[in-house]
Amino acid sequence: MKWVAAAILVFVVGYTLVNIFFRKPGPPHRPYEDMNNRVTNRRLLDAGWQRIALQTRRPVEKPGGLGALAEVRRGANGLGVEFGQAFAVAPALPASIDRVTAPAAIAQGVDCTVYFTASLGDQKKQLGDITLYRRGHELVFVPELEALPGTGLLSRWNDTDYWLSFPALDLPPGRYTARLLARGPAALWEFEVR
Hints:
CATH topology: Immunoglobulin-like
Number of strands: 11
Radius of gyration: 22 Å
Distance between the termini: 80 Å
Structural class: alpha+beta
Helix content: 10-25%
Strand content: 35-45%
CATH architecture: Sandwich
CATH class: Mainly Beta
Shape: elongated
């Protein structure tokens, strides 16, 4: 019996050392998610959409001193027919976008900052990545929910304020329509790049 215990101990120690020294850094390979992302990206590129990097932050303080604000109205629910067909797996959207504060005009070359309040609809999730897609003079923000780690964690509030910023350097001057998606009605607004 001593030999069995010694063999198990040697195997566990050896496996642990090999795993520590030779493990690939970074997140593990997830072939299903990678394949879905590649299919979605290819479909969006074929439909003329391009992805724009943006910065997000939360929690945020209430905005002030933005100048003239854009008029925000309600749009269609969810991803919409044309845009939604490009996704291999539909993203988990927040329940609703309750309030958006965005500038009515920005200068080309400066960052455009948008503040919004989203209702999650599920306190076991939190807002993860927000992706921005552009086609011509149309911008679409896709916020995705992700599960909180663990089984006992809950979000403190059902609605939270968020901040996002994207560069307007690559946007040619003109009038743009922006859409922030949710499972409920999307938030729509227009702004001008000067």
